[in-house]
Design goal:
Oligomer: homotetramer
Structural class of chain A: alpha/beta
Main location (chains A, B, C, D): cytoplasm
Family (chains A, B, C, D): Belongs to the peptidase C15 family.
Function (chains A, B, C, D): Removes 5-oxoproline from various penultimate amino acid residues except L-proline.
EC number (chains A, B, C, D): 3.4.19.3
Order of helices and strands of chain A: EHEHEEEEHHEEHEH
Number of helices of chain A: 6
Shape of chain A: globular
Subcellular location (chains A, B, C, D): Cytoplasm
Chain lengths: 213, 213, 213, 213
């Protein structure tokens, strides 16, 4: 069983992205029958997904868990759905790291409006809560890079009819980030690392039950 | 050109639903070349959509604008997408007016995960802002009755390949509601009425340009 | 009976301050036995209060109602207390319109730590709610210009033992401001104008009952 | 040097109060030249302060650090001021554990409107941030039990002219609480314990420099 974990480089005004650190931790996890690979993705529309899909083609994972930062959230939030849109909004544009600010652009013209994550989100939520870690299913991954990545990966799996479980987990700001900006809700990096380990185990176990291999 | 507007009865602990009042106001609008019909929907999973779809079959509208309350929001928010799920969550269940609390239930097994609204959301946002009315596109209509209604109507139109524009507009609490619960952001009922009139005009105009009729 | 109303010029990144507009409206109020004077104050530490106190010395009002903007609040909030501090915080400094960023500075070394508003705050809250206008007593006017003004005026009245009722009312962003920044809760300028009229009447009536004149 | 730490029993609908657990941890701290005593206070108006003041008379502490829960906050927040009021508000009353709901009641008729904490709040904030723990000075301890305790203790010290440093620290919900209610911002109990240790050291050191002993 191979699990591919992705995270993102820092973006916007933030010099830290806790999902970058999560990748370093994930590489050290020792999980029975689970091989872990990781990839750090650029905060750029389309390119984020292209790099993850290229890595999927090489690494041939059974499970893909894309991870991203949702500063302002209080809990670890598995995303329910990716939607076929790139949009930085009509007000204050929020550019990606190359300065792009798409508005209401479709990711893929010929593809469905939305695609559900195939990770066991409700089970992830339960396992995390059992460990006293705040978790909740989210119904929107937004319309920025995170959603772009989620949608494109699910669409790639759909088009090629692959037996891969895939989805997206949003993590809150780390407590280190909140120390600089105390109005940000946070979880410590160690708690998020502990959570990621449980998420990987839960997804690997679930994938095995659904697909074998 | 016929436009069908739906609203909801009160739900939860709230004795007021501003969208119920909006229907009464909408019936009095005088708009050139636009005939308005309205329907008040029950806050019940599935039944909400069944009643709206039945009304659509009778009234044969060109445009359907479903309206709902999103207490806590600060602006009028056209919804981008309806998703194929009914879910009152794993924590504090939030029952409908019959006491139902579905969890991760699909609305229609054979249908897509998500369906985009076909109302001109970006144009609605612009027209409202031009009138100094706060507006923003929302990327999640939640997983309760409002999303249920939006998804089911879009799916009905899709299945029957109808030339109907349809979507969902969430309205914030009315200022009257905020007077009882001052931590609630609000807009006055009159402002929401003014907004609905503009939304109808914008949708009718857009439908005419896209479909004629 | 003379009532002095103060408001503020715009500050920070905002080009509008609804309390500046409130002054123009207040000058047009026609209230029996109540003469209204107004003053627009600069968003500068200390100078804000000096100008208001100078105006008090000239105009000899019975009641002083200082008004300010609290962008982010949902209701009209009479302030309970002014505190003897000027502080723009230890993180992101939030300078006044001259660029000053005091930190933990006392307003007046020889004076009390806090002084209660002497406006009839609870009655104001009730009168506004009766008119379906959201209102709530606030327990902190912050540590910026608004609190500086409130504290210094109350302290001036205390030192000189004057028979003047005085306090501070925070107003939310106007709906016009929220149209530019739709995540801001708001009230329409007209609702705030209506509220200010009721606040003046309530304060004048209360002052008359307490002090005569 | 003796430091007295107080915490509270659970209140409202919450079965946990992280400050109760902090007391158990504090009793195990090993700090050079600092003796620690603790007291668990009831969530009852006036009685909260009476019990703490009685304990102060017995234990003769040099420093009093009262601790309370502020569910909803994201950071550890030293309070700047206690105010002379007990108030559960005019809307939804929020009773203490005996069912009392005072409204705009003065704590002590003959005493000042507000009294500043004498703990080194800014230094506490700095020391916590240096350890990557979110911290910020708060300008309102509310008008419930926490403020009641803070004000009454500061007023007792003032009336008797005692050489005691005293103040109040609000802690956010624990991560355990957030696991049950994932929309609550939180910090892990261990982080709050680590913070309390630093707060005690900082206050003891500061007291020694100001007063000797």
């Amino acid at each position: 069983m191979k699990v591919l974990i992705s995270g993102f480089e820092p973006f916007g005004k933030m010099s830290i992205n806790p999902t970058e650190k999560l990748l370093l931790e994930a590489e050290r996890f020792s999980l029975e029958n689970v091989e872990i690979e990781t990839i750090l993705l650029p905060v750029q529309y389309d390119k984020c997904a292209e790099e993850l899909i290229k890595k999927m083609a090489e690494a041939q994972p059974d499970v893909v868990i894309a991870c991203g930062l949702a500063a302002g959230r209080t809990a670890i939030t598995p995303e329910r759905i990716g939607i076929n849109i790139k949009d930085t909004g009509s007000g204050d544009p929020y550019p990606d790291n190359r300065g792009n600010t798409p508005m209401d652009e479709v990711i893929d013209e010929q593809s469905p409006d939305g695609l559900f994550s195939t990770l066991p989100n409700r089970l992830i939520e339960k396992k995390l809560k059992d460990l006293q870690i705040p978790a909740a299913i989210s119904n929107s991954a937004g319309t920025f890079i995170c959603n772009n990545t989620l949608y494109a990966v699910l669409n790639y799996i759909r088009k090629h009819n692959l037996a891969i479980s895939a989805g997206f987990i949003h993590f809150p700001a780390s407590t280190e980030m909140s120390a600089r900006n105390p109005s940000l809700p946070s979880l410590p990096q160690e708690v998020m690392t502990q959570a990621l380990k449980v998420i990987i185990e839960t997804c690997a176990h679930h994938h095995y039950h659904c697909f074998g291999s």
